[in-house]
Amino acid sequence: MVAVPPNRRPAAWVMLLATLLVLAFQGTRGLWDPDEGRFTNVALEMIHLGDYVNLHRYGDSFHFTKPPVTYWAIAGSVSVFGWNEWAARLPNVFAFLGVVALLLRIGRHFAPRRPWLPALIYATWPLTLLAAHLITTDTPLAFATTLALACYVIARFEHRPQYILGMWAAFGLAFMTKGPPGLLGLVAV
């Protein structure tokens, strides 16, 4: 058995705790209308019609109220795991865990003595946990903007300028997830 260096143990515990918290009760309740039903309905219409570009709420009515990333993620998850509440919410689980992992990666730049602390706070914050248990664009947006921040921090503080391209790609992902609110992070750059 390979021993984990002591400085990595807190990070592993934070990831384990985040995984347990975000998976608790996933799929144990039905979808809540209007948001969860609408997001799932559009994703199921994508699968049913085989059209992943033109968003439909019902077969003949277009639905372009949100950008497509969340719908694509739900459609992909449901295609792999079958139609159930757990599969519909799984993309938000991955987005939540992605934010935790990114905060673990860049935590040493913001809290050098306790680099795991930003991730622990995010993972245990009731609002972020609630958002990860709901089908909305909020948790995927949090992932995309955190990814943009992480790329910027790595480029700036670790002197790896190639990560600036990753930052711009992440802002593109944020825009494709929620539209103009996804670009608010550019104000800080």
Summarize this, please?
The protein is an all-alpha fold and 189 residues long.
Task: Please state the structural category.
Answer: mainly alpha
Low-confidence stretches: 1-6
* Percent of sequence in beta strands: under 5%
What is the end-to-end distance?
44 Å
Using the CA coordinates, give the radius of gyration: 18 Å
Biggest sheet, spatial arrangement of strands: 1-2
Tell how many strands the DSSP assignment holds: 2
Mean pLDDT: 90
> How many distinct helices?
8
Order of helices and strands: HHEEHHHHHH
- Envelope shape: globular
Classify the helix fraction into a percent range.
Answer: 55-70%
Largest sheet: 2 strands, antiparallel
Describe the protein.
The protein is mainly α. The protein is built from eight helices and two strands; from the N terminus they run H-H-E-E-H-H-H-H-H-H. A two-stranded antiparallel ribbon has the order 1-2. Helix 2 crosses helix 3 (69-81) and helix 4 runs antiparallel to helix 6. The longest helix is centred in the middle third of the chain and has 26 residues, at 85-110.
Describe the structure using short key phrases:
two-stranded antiparallel sheet, 189 residues, 63% helix, 8 helices, disordered N terminus, mainly alpha
